[in-house]
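Question thread 4412

I'm putting together a teaching handout and wanted feedback from people who do this every day. The idea is simple: show students a protein as raw sequence, then show them the structure tokens that encode its fold, then repeat with a second protein so they can compare. Below is the first pair exactly as I plan to print it.
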Amino acid sequence: MKTGILLTNLGTPDAPTKSASRRYLSEFLSDSRVVDPPNKLIWWLTLNVVILNIRPKKLAKIYAKIWDKIGTGSPLLSITKLQLQGVKKTLLKQHKNLIFEIGMRYGNPSISSALNKLHAQGCEKIIVLPLYPQYSNTTTLSTLDTINQTLDTINQTLDPWTKKPKIAIIEHYYDNDGYLQSLANSVLEHQTKHGKPDKLMISFHGIPQRYVDNGDVYYDHCIGTVKLLVKKLDLDESDYLFSFQSIFGREPWTKPQTKERLEALASNGVVHIQVICPGFSADCLETLEEIECENRDYFIQAGGRQFSYIPALNDRNDHIKMLIDLISTHL
């Protein structure tokens, strides 16, 4: 039996251009799991008349700053390819008949195209690992929506006697010991080079508070990650803070916010900050530009002196081993 291994992530524009950014934003912001407005008509008008005519040019300029920074092209896509190579290199030594693909929820290569490739190569089972440690309806469930839609399309082409591919999806791994140990290792290695900070800031991507109130477990998974990580690092409450970044729109989002916390810390005499973003399995726009550049400026301008970003786990050996162990439980 052939088994497909599919690694997925959020996605990226095809190029740091206005047209590519517009296509990406249109797909991303049209996902009702990501943006679920009370008035869909008003949102459609806002998106198509205002946002998609203004935001793409700005986004393209920001992407241009980090393009080719890690490998060739988009850092997120380049790193995901490296992660797949690392997983593939080891698993093919242990198991036969495995086929590997990556798929992005928005942009290319798409999840749909990856699933179709795996199906075309005869995979009867497909193991899907969304590279989101913390589960959220906005990410993991959105990925599952696309998987189900694609499988429905595939199934319509099959005759009644043909086996339909089975899906095993790894929904989260925020409490996985290998994941937490890899995070802890990255912190300790960074501090060996840059010293121990006054505070360690643990920053996650935010989501609307309304989503949490309606049952999304993402906030709980983030808090769980913080508790388990600081235990690994043996930190006191005075050693760290957690926060949420990447706020969008006017409605309330999960708090406290990274920008506000950094400015408050600097104003209160904290001079050395290090930031880690455990929710990002690969470095991307939100880490390389938003944290390492934009939020660094907020901290320094408010009176801080030393700021450093601890890179995402990317293709670290201990991270790749953890991904392999996650996948292996389904083989």
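The second pair follows. I'd like the answer to focus on this one:
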Amino acid sequence: MHNPWIIDDWHLMLRLLLSVLLGGLIGYERERKNHAAGLRTHTLVCLGSCLIMVLSIYGFSEFVDQQGVNRDPARLAAQAITGIGFLGAGTIMFTGKSITGLTTAASLWVVMAIGLAVGAGFYLAAAFSVVLALIVLWGLNILEKRYVNHTGEHMFTVTVDANNVSTEPMQQLLLRHGAKLLRVQFDEVTDHAHGIGLMRIRLTVRLPKATLVLAIAEQLRTMTGVTAVSAE
């Protein structure tokens, strides 16, 4: 009768190799988009999770028949689920206007679960989870860009000649693009090289589409009296 607590070397290496392959597929998708956690990170997380699961199930097989020993194959796996949080948190960044990296953190969590599934021998579940994860990361991303209208806050910093400035054209420009003006800040600066007074105007706006940032910045740059424009 097959002992459920013992695994041969070939199956052990197969599980570790499969975890590298499956984790690498998701990591490659993140790498293509230049995320902080890319190919190597996802591959290592999946490999490590698989190894932890294998160790949890088979690593203490010699103690199974010992008196008073209570085996719990899920114990180490539970610690892996808890421990992945610090790695996922490292990919999340708060820029002051938005939070980025949540999807990558979630993909690391999924990759960890895939590694545990491979380590436990649930090959079909692990492989199908990779397919579903790639559909979510690729397919839903395309749908979001095409059908979901994301609004976001952006700041335009416009440097103008203090003696030749009018904010009316700027307001009209924002209205034409459907932008909502949230905050305005005026700062006087001096161009010591040319001995002229400048004013820096910071416009915080909410745009209906992120793709409007470049168009608005370009039109601001062509306005009379404007010497420099930056957008973020």
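Top answer:
Good format. For the second protein you could add a caption like this: The chain has a mean pLDDT of 79. The first helix runs from residue 9 to 32.
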